[in-house]
Amino acid sequence: MTGFTAENTNGFHAGEDGDAGEKTAGEVIKCKAAVVWGSGEAFKIEEIEVEPPQRLEVRLRILFTSICHTDLNAWQGENKLQQIFPRVLGHEAAGVVESVGEAVEELKAGDRVVPVFTGECGYCAACRSEKTNLCVGYAVDPMRSVMRADGRVRFFWVGPDGERRPVYHFLNTSTFAEYTVIDSACVVKVPADAPLSRMCLLSCGISTGLGAAWNTANVEEGSKVAIFGLGAVGLAVAEGARLRGAANIIGVDINPNKFQKGREMGITDFINPTDYTKPLHEVIRELTKGGVDYSFECSGNLEVLREAFLSTHPGWGLTVVLGVHPSPKLLPLHPMELFERKIVAAVFGDFKAKSQLPELISKCISGEIKINLDGFISHELPFSEINQAFQLLAEGKALRCLLKL
Questions:
Q1: Phi, psi of 338, deg, nearest 5
Q2: pTM higher than 0.90 for the full model?
Q3: What pLDDT is recorded for position 308?
Q4: Could you give the CA distance from residue 365 to residue 191 in angstroms, rounded to a whole number?
Q5: Which of 249, 201, 198, 216 is nearest to 347 (CA)?
């Protein structure tokens, strides 16, 4: 991932002197957004009004956004408690700051940024601690649909009758819109020469997988790893394990078409569960002569989670939960089983977004860390084709579909 050059940002140049941002700062902006009006309904490209940012908020011009399985789950309405409509989904993106609200000091109009779904205020006890990346005030909250500053939305749709109807937010970000308003704690500044079309991948899936391998599990050279579910997060785990020098990286998925891409990311062995009649953990224990050191559950399936847990080596095996599980569900484990193996979960790969993500990006740009970001983008489509992009992901045909606004 070297040799990057700054991209054309669709003629938006609020960057250098702030004049373009000043033209709209403080005003309501009318723009296009992909609005979902009900669970599983097709997205509609609507004109919405986006209000100015309030205290400690930032308004962004989104230039690139991609689709994550979390967006797919929310769109399909798997969690009844999240079914709040109409809504602007999306949380993996990159763009440019259009304007900032009161008391925002670290960002200005024109800064190139990525939004992150779990924020970092930098001041609370959690942000000051090395034990967690979950900020007290701005940690991810999938149930939140309004802004923290005043409990209101910043998006509105004006109907034919002139009624101004609120459109709700999603995962602190709502990136399926040309403009969005986000808490400044959830906005990370990136270098001016960072390619935004690739940086958007680091705002969720790739950072989650890499961080799970590096921060949560701390995979060592020569270790054995099993990854259950080879979507973007699972393949990012493989990339992280490869970069750490893992000796065996086993990819588990029912779609054999994913193995070719898996090899590019460092997977050494591929297991299709449908090829076996005995429990998958037994297959992996035999293959690895006792079990893997680390397993990563990236599917959001409880049966898969149990197999991932039991596939690790007794005594020191660690399972990291990364899949998004529908609520309410309980762990399929007996407490006594925890005497032999450990299980943990990670949000955003245990990265502290604002303080640690910039360093990762800088090392990627310099070539110190060679992450195959290009390999994660399977499709590139215009924003207007967002429904096709969701269909590709739902059918298992897309890894990451990049939408250009």
A1: -75, -5
A2: yes
A3: 98
A4: 9
A5: 216
